[in-house]
Design brief:
Length: about 80
């Protein structure tokens, strides 16, 4: 189940809807760019602190997407 609760595990499409309601695709792209940038440097700033919300949703998106694909293959 990874990062998903039992309820989210059963309704993995809802996880994606909620994540993209909270953050738009462009915001995830910016997050990934920032994550790469900051992972290659040793600086600390406000941008790093704002990344955590996007990261949590991204982990859930990946878990939910895996479940969706896995269930689609079974059908």
């Amino acid at each position: 189940m990874g990062s998903l609760s039992a309820e989210k595990y059963r309704d993995s499409v809802r996880v994606l809807r909620k994540a993209f309601k909270a953050y738009r695709r462009k915001e995830y792209e910016e997050f990934l760019s920032s994550a790469v940038y900051f992972s290659l440097s040793d600086s600390r700033c406000e941008e790093e602190r704002r990344m955590i919300g996007s990261y949590i949703h991204l982990v859930k998106i990946l878990d939910a997407a895996y479940l969706i694909v896995k269930r689609a293959v079974k059908e």
